[in-house]
Amino acid sequence: MALAVALVVLLALVPAAWVALKRWAGRRAAGPLWPLLLFAVLALAYALVVPPWQTPDEPQHMVHVEVVRRGGFGAAEQLLPFKTPPPGVARMNADVQRQIVASMRATNAGKWLPGGIAGLRAGAVPGPTELNHPPLYYDVAAVLLRPFGSLPVVGRLAILRVLGVVLATAVVWCCGAAGRLLFPGKRWAEASAAIALAVPTFVVFAGAVNNDALAQFLAALLVLLLLAGVVDAGRIARPLPWFGLIVVLLVLGVLTKRTFVPLVPVVLVAIAVRVRPHPRAMLAALAAVEAVVGLVLVTGADARLASWHRATMTGTSRCAGGHGDEWAICLTPSSYQVSQKVPLVDADELGGETVRAAVWMRGNSSTFALDVNTDHGPVAHAEEQPTAEWRYVVVTGHVPVKPGYLGLALTKQGPGTVVVDDVKLSPFDPNQPGAYTDPSVDLPAPNFITNGSGESAVLSAPTALPGPIRRVVDGAVDSVDGLVRQPGAVVDSAGILTRRAAQGFGSFWGTVGWQVPMPLFPVAIQWALAVLVAAGVAGFVALVLRRGFPLAPAAVLASAIVCVGAAAVLQTVPPTEVEAISGRYLFPALVAFTVVLAAGWRHLWPATTDAFRLVLRLSIPAIQLLFIALVLVPFLS
Question: Which helix (H) or strand (E) holds 391?
Fold first, then answer.
């Protein structure tokens, strides 16, 4: 009974919020109710049909929620791999894991997730940990679930799925509101909301336990707010409330998920567009940005090791006093491991070959390990006891064909410090003259490790920021750094990036579950959708060029689509492993995407407005039925 009441109350928020908005802001602001109700019904139906634990990374997201619900705010941070949690928190986490594994076994989750069967048999929750994600969604979800601790975990999962439906319905309202804002008085202004309903992946993933739900809602609000500002629409567009709400949404978004970060450049575009007619205001805004950046640098933005992944966020992992140069890589008790994966194009090139990893190393009171790994397992391993004198450590191993990824890790165990320099990973020919005479002599072979001597550094997020936010900021900085530091590898990865983009586009429109490979629409339907999208974009560009659409909001819409799309494709720059790119990472730009398509298609539409509206409305059941027949039913069967 408690579960049923909770679900009904959550769903009732949709019409209740619409009625409240209508009374407060008027009928035009609230818009029609039918798209919201239709979306909520469709999304709820999918949430009931898709089995428990079968939306992307749902089990691990639920682990994070349950840890916060039972352990309190900050409990997840205590369970990160590089920390020693209190015994009570560790026991609680183990119990959460056991409950979710038991629920997955009871619901036969392995039937739809073959890759997770081995983990479930071993008592492990499938998927990568989500405990390192920003906390806002999990804190909100944990507070919501606290009165329902006596329910089975699958019951609490159902509550959060309905919460996701409510938040996604709000995104649909934002799509419609953007249409009404930009096309006032047009009878087809709701087209953008209808297009959102015609994206099956968005509808089916609405009922998911995932921090994407809150991130997409905040992103939709932010894009809508930016559009309102650049067209100077109403009280909310006044400078003070506009800037204030932007700051609030940015903070909340960064506290929710990294996929929100690509909207930061969109904010800058909107601000530049708005203050462009006012040079003094632009100079003041520029001075304010420089002041904030300077304050951040002064208050603890240390220079950390570039191009390497650090196991912890403590320390910079670099120090002075290298082997023959100024800098070196430093492993300390608080920063005990760094690792690097070579670009996937290079890893594939080395597939089937023998490689040699070599480093100069010295230290004290520690054990140093040098490892070369692939997706298929370890390739080479060496352990050494460091001394005060520099020593050369060399390992060789055979890389399997199609390694998946090829990475090198430097690890320190013990209380002391290890200094590492001149790290190399190169192809190795044992028949080459002089191959074994002096390992420290450079051989004529390329080095696939970047910044192996620690000479290059990037700024880290200020230590005053909470750990989850620092990870978001550092991850964004690393992506930009990889793009700038290895442009050649990025260019060489064009084929990989193209395949990623195609997969992202296909899964944007129609996928379900989190299997690999992802179930998608047949290629013919994907191509048909691509042609329709291309036509919509072309129509929008033509509309802007003919001055049928204001340039200011067009710049905001275009920057949102480009920034979010680029971030989705360029998750790691350059690509270092075979990754499944989910189209849900494009949903933070859904408001911009639907508005552009609505405007572009209407501009090209040769018939009446009534016919345009009818076709859009009919497209909703048409594409949903295609999705059910071609994607959902095969997935469930």
Answer: strand 391-398
Phi, psi of 314 (to 5 degrees): -90, 135
Per-residue pLDDT reduced to its tens digit, 542-583: 999 999 999 999 999 999 999 999 999 887 788 888 777 889
Can you give the pLDDT at residue 603? 96
Examine the domain organization and report whether 293 and 407 are in the same domain.
Answer: no
Tokens representing 510? 């129609």
CA dihedral for 5, 148, 42, 540, sign (positive or negative): positive
| Conformation bin of residue 423: beta by default, left when phi > 0, alpha when psi is -120 to 50 | beta
Distance CA 305, CA 328 (A): 9
Residue 281: count other Cβ atoms within 10 Å of its Cβ: 14
Question: In the structure, what pLDDT confidence band is assigned to residue 54 with cuts at 50, 70 and 90?
Answer: very high
Strands (E) across 302-353 are located at 303-305, 309-310, 318-320, 327-331, 337-341
Domain count, the chain: 2
List the structure tokens of 73.
């705010």
The verdict on 377 and 516 lying in the same domain is no
Give yes or no: residues 253 and 318 share one domain: no
Say if residue 269 is in the same domain as residue 369.
Answer: no
**What confidence score (pLDDT) does residue 424 get?**
93
380's tokens: 């080479």
**Segment 318-341, tens digit of pLDDT:** 998 888 778 999 999 888 899 999
- Which tokens go with 581? 């790119």
The model carries a pTM of 0.90
Sheet holding 418-427, edge to edge: 318-320, 327-331, 418-427, 354-363, 391-398
Are 254 and 365 part of one and the same domain?
A: no
Range of the domain at 282: 1-301+464-637
Q: Are 279 and 403 found together in one domain?
A: no
Asked whether residue 424 falls in the same domain as residue 505, the answer is no
